[in-house]
Structure formats: structure tokens, C-alpha cells
Amino acid sequence: MKSKLTTSRRKAFIAEIERQLEQDIPIWENKIQWEKPMLCDGDGPIAQYRRWCQQFYTFPEEPPGRALEVLQSAPN
Predict the structure, then answer these.
(1) Choosing a second label site near 52 at 20 to 30 A (CA), which of 2, 4, 26, 73?
(2) What's the pLDDT at 9?
(3) Structure pTM?
(4) Cα–Cα distance between 22 and 11 in angstroms, integer?
(5) pLDDT value at 37 more than 90
């Protein structure tokens, strides 16, 4: 039999994870692959990791924000 305290801790833990994941959604929705990112000495073997990750990226025909720029500059 689960104790009431254990159940409430479990629910609180799950709620916190959900809260943090929801905060990350805007980051995920706007994430892009930079061809030549600025790297620091402490970044480690990031180039190898980036090569592996590249298989999961899609490359839009227009850069992010470009479609909005076109719409904003179009005559009414």
C-alpha cells in the first residue's frame, strides 16, 4: 500500500517536470542548425555531436522570420 506522502510527492514531481517541459517548447519550436556556430574552448567534442544531430534537422527553404518579413513589406 502506497503512503499518502509518497503519492503526493510523486504528483508534485510529475507536475514540476510538466512545468519545465512546457517552458522549453518555445525553444524547441525555434531551434535551428547554424552552419558555423560560435564555439568556446570548453565546448568539448561538440562538432562530433553536431554531425550526429544533423540527421534530425530539416532545412526550410526560407530562413526563419523571412516569410514574416515578406508579408510585412508587401503592399496592401
Answers:
(1) 26
(2) 93
(3) 0.41
(4) 16
(5) no
CB of 33 within 8 A of CB of 57?
A: yes
C-alpha torsion angle, residues 19, 25, 27, 33 (rounded to 10): 140
Separation of alpha carbons 23 and 9, rounded Å: 21
- Please state, in angstroms and as integers, the Cα–Cα distance from residue 7 to each residue in 13, 17, 20, 61, 71, following that order: 10, 16, 20, 49, 52
- Cα–Cα distance between 23 and 12 in angstroms, integer? 17
> What are the C-alpha distances in Å from 45 to residues 39, 48, 50, 63?
11, 6, 9, 27
Task: Concatenate the DSSP letters of all residues of 26-74 into one string.
Answer: HHHHT----SS----GGG-SHHHHHHHHGGG----SS-TTHHHHHHHHS
